[in-house]
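The data layer described in this paper is built around a simple, fixed record for each protein. We quote a single record here, exactly as it is kept in our systems:
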Amino acid sequence: MRLPSSIFVSVSLFTAEATAAVYLSSTYSSAGDRFWLNLTLLFTLLPSLLVQLTLIFIHRDLSRDKPLLLLLHILQLGPVIRCLEAFWLYGSVGRVEDTYVSITRKKQLHRTGSTEEVEHQVGQAEGKLITHRAAFARTSVIQAFLGSAPQLSLQLYICVMERGLSVGRVTLMLISLLSIVYGAMRCNILAIKIKYDDYDVHMQPMAYVCIFLWRGCEIATRVMVLVLFSSVLKKWVMPVIAVNFLVFFFYPWLLFWKGHSPFPENIEKTLSRLGTAITLCMLTFLYAGINMFCWSGVQVKLDDPDLISKSQNWYRMAVFYMARFIENASMLLMWYIYRTDFYHVLWVPLLMPLLLAAYIAAIFFMLIFYQFFHPCRRLFSTSISHDLRDCCAFFCLTCRSPEEGDKPRKAPGAADVRCDIPDAANGNVSCTLAP
């Protein structure tokens, strides 16, 4: 059994970011910056509450008699206690014989493309540990895009407005950036495991490196562009954010209403119809929050039992990155036109191409991951390189159809010549002019 290192990383980032935010809030309080103090605490406490509710919901603690555990969640110590419980379960595996063992069957994908079904016995302790991993994978995504991403944008905006850096702000921004990148990585891995639930998925070390570079460049560029744009066009930043958020929030609902599918009833048996609706709204809210900063890697499908579309749509991904690149370039251009005297100190002509180059680098690492290091790339119906060629051929207006490209051109006024060779051994060749 694998060491629950992902749980430890999630809790470490959660604790470090909360500690850095509390310290920075104390400095804002000492300086009398009440506005920055309130926003910093808001972007710290709100995602923390959502993380506690998610852990309680996944572990079904409301239906159990555990008042002490619920009290610790109210005190915002739930992730720490869950982490200690996960490591205790990891240490107890194999020491006590399980009275109940379930058998799972997963397909292993070999390098040759063949699959082999393998059975695996899962005991009670290991099953609980799997639940812990799934819970912390989801809380990492919530913490990253509903807490760390707004926090990073806020602190970077404060640095630009006050034209200075401090140790507390730099520390919090670095931790927040790591939290966002880690949450995006967990989102990718979670999406792969949901799409290929029948397979035993193993990620290579180079896959983690590619995802880290892909997500790091993409998110850092997006946050920097939003902050630069909002620093010179304060009245326009909220409409831009609102349009982005509402488009991604209502898009799954529009597909759901367009398909005339019945209302989902099998998400959780203990939930009422109102509770199911609230859960779906929270899911689409998180989906919109992720797509505000980067490609989510999944397509929410409300009429699916897993709530995730398991088809790999390269065209939707290509449209997203093309539209986001145009949006980032347009926002940078507006910032360059309306920049203040403060930005003349910076090397502005170099800053714009660096940000655009970083976003192109993110797309490059994404293509590398899907082409070479995706754990289930052999199951793709078509490769990403093939679909990219199709996209280029579709958008290229000067390309010709295959029939026109293969057909030889005939000079004006030239006649077709037809040659018949009835007897190749005797060398008899007869040629006639075709009408």
Remarks:
- Residues 210 and 368 are 7 Å apart (CA to CA).
